[in-house]
Every structure is written in C-alpha cells, then in structure tokens.
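To whoever is covering the structure queue this week,

Two jobs came back overnight. Logging them here so there's a record in the thread.

Job A:
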Amino acid sequence: MEDRHLFRGKRIDKNEWWEGHYITDLNGRAYISQTVKSFDVGNIKNSGRSLSAFTEIDPQTLGQSTGLRDKSGLLIYEGDILQSPTGNLVIKYGGYTPESFIKYLQAFRKDVENNLYGLFGEYISDNEQCILPEDMTLTNVIGNIHDNPELLEEE
C-alpha cells in the first residue's frame, strides 16, 4: 500500500486528472505536485535531477488514494465508484458507522465508540457502509462521482 499517501484532483485549467501530493497555498488554493524526472523546456534540458511540477486543482474533486487496487490493477481513490459482487459502492472518507463491525468490536472492548473515521465504502442501493478489505481484486472501478454522476442512481 505504498500509494496510500497519493491524492488525485482535476486541474482547473483542463479537464484532466492529476495524481501526486496534495498541497495548499496561503490563500487556500489546492494543488497537486508530481515529480518530473525528465523535461525539456526551451534551452533547459534535464540534468539528471528530478523536479516538482505543480498544477492547481478544483478542491471539490480532491480524493485520497486508498492504497488498494482493483482487479485490473487500477489504484482506487476516494470518490471512485466500484462494481463488486455485492453491489456498486462509492469510496468515501470521513466518519462512518458500520453497524456489524462496531458490534463485533464492542463484544471485545466496551469502550469502542459508535463511529469510526477514515476511508470506507458506501453501497449505492441502500447507503449501507462497509470497511474496505485489503484484497479488492473482486472489484472493478467503473467511474467516479465527478465524471460519472449517473452511476450514483439506484441500481
């Protein structure tokens, strides 16, 4: 899960996704930074060093990587819509309450809160929440909430 610290966002000047590290400036604008290993700009050629390229993104499209990959090897991000054997789900980040898992934890520890925080899945059909398994090879990324909002309609 070496990719779990990556973020993705849509450039504000073009309709394309960028993956990399998320940063903000003092004015609150959001950027994605990528490491560029080869470049050729005007008379400047790559001297064997890496440099960072930045692009401003729409903060509404920002999503963190789960560090997990679907069955085709595609990295799964917050905001992705996945097809799974149990139904289509959206990857989200925030507070969530997967009831069956909370009850399981509370059987062993009485001090467990009724909510958790982090990346989770939410089924489109009934909004039921689930914890993401380490093995996502039975899932397939079929789109995301920004490019494919029609996939959010009930199955």
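Job B:
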Amino acid sequence: MRGRLHTAGEIVDIDCRVDWIWSLLVEAAAGGMTAPVDSVAPTVQLVVESSRQRFDDAGSVRVTRGARLGPTGLIFADACASGFSLRIKPCADQLLVIARYRPDAKIRAAATLLRSRFHLIARSVLVQYPALWWAGVHGRAPLHVSALTSDAGPILLAGPGGVGKSTLVAREISAGSVAACDNLAVSDGVDVFGVAEPIRTTTGARVAMLATGARGAANARRAGAGRATTGGGRLRV
C-alpha cells in the first residue's frame, strides 16, 4: 500500500507492506492520505517492511542505549518503546526511514492492553518525529499552537491543554474557517505548517483532517459541527 501525506511542511511518501500498520497510518492521517504523485519528489520516504529480522548493524558504533550509527544509517532497536525498529538515513534532499515491527512480549502486551497509547506512539515514531526532525533541518521550529485562518485573517492560539483550543478550532471550521493544525505546527518565522494528526474536541467527537486550499474550505463547510479536520496545512502569518 502506498500513500502521501503533507505534514510539518514536508511531503511524506509511505510504502507499507503490512496491512494492519497501513490501517494505523491511514487513521493517523485522519483523511489526509492521498496517492503519491510521481512528478513531485517526496522529502521524507517511509518504508514499513514485513520482515521481523533485526537490521544489520555491522560496522556500527553505539550512540546511546538502543541506538547505533553505521554505514547504513542510524538504527534504533526499539524506538520510544513502540516495538518498531527503525533505520534512518539522510539521502541528499530526502530522509529515508525504514521500519520493522519486532516487539518483545512486554511491548506486545502493552500494545494490546493500551491500544490508544500504542496508536499515539506508533504514529509519532513512524511519521511525526521523522517529519519534525526533517522540518528542523529545513529551518522550521516546532510550535505548540492551533493555527487557522478566518474572515479576520490568520490566527495562532497558544495555551496549555484543556483550555478549549480544539473546541474553538472545531467551531471555527464548522463556520467555514480553514485550520492548518490543532495542536502542533512548525514555523520558519514566516509560514506556519501544521502537523497532521487526528484530534478530539472536549466532547470526545473525532475531528478529521482538512485538506488545504479551496477543497479544504469546501470540506470544512460540509463537515458540520464536531466533525472538522486539521493538520498538514500552511498558514502565512
């Protein structure tokens, strides 16, 4: 299965050979997954392999616990206790991320019993963290904000969790505004790029992700209250 996701100002192409992990990635994109476009090169390439074998770390040196650097890139044995082993390597203008799911019994049990937690960690490890890191290489700093544009112009909302940012964003989208993100973004000081992720309002309603541009605005108007979408968009401030 192959798809493309715009997030943190990066173009992430995904090649996933495991059905259930593909479903997890589609859920994480919350409506933002599209077909790859061969004429536009991705900046981040994620390959999820079906192999359960450990990555070859011959010739590598230990960087820290669970991480080794070698000729084939940086290898994480168990990234963020997710059960995913990662091999990460910058290749010219592109970041290559190869993932294999090979959890031990403890991690597998935790993933089964704490499913929502596992989904959060897995989508962070596979998509968000690589995109955020590569965005940093491109001069964009992370921001804990909600970002949207309305008739009043671009708006950035900063504040601690639980103060109502998600509820306000969902309400604004239902009124025709377009959101770049609900929770996390990156910025180069001129543009704000949303990080794609599913969000929830204070009522627990699922909030799906809006595409950017005219199509995103149309989707927002059709979504109605409590079913807005955010993430992956771009907002000039």
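Note for Job B: The first strand starts at residue 2 and ends at 7.

Please reply-all if you pick these up so we don't duplicate work.
Q.
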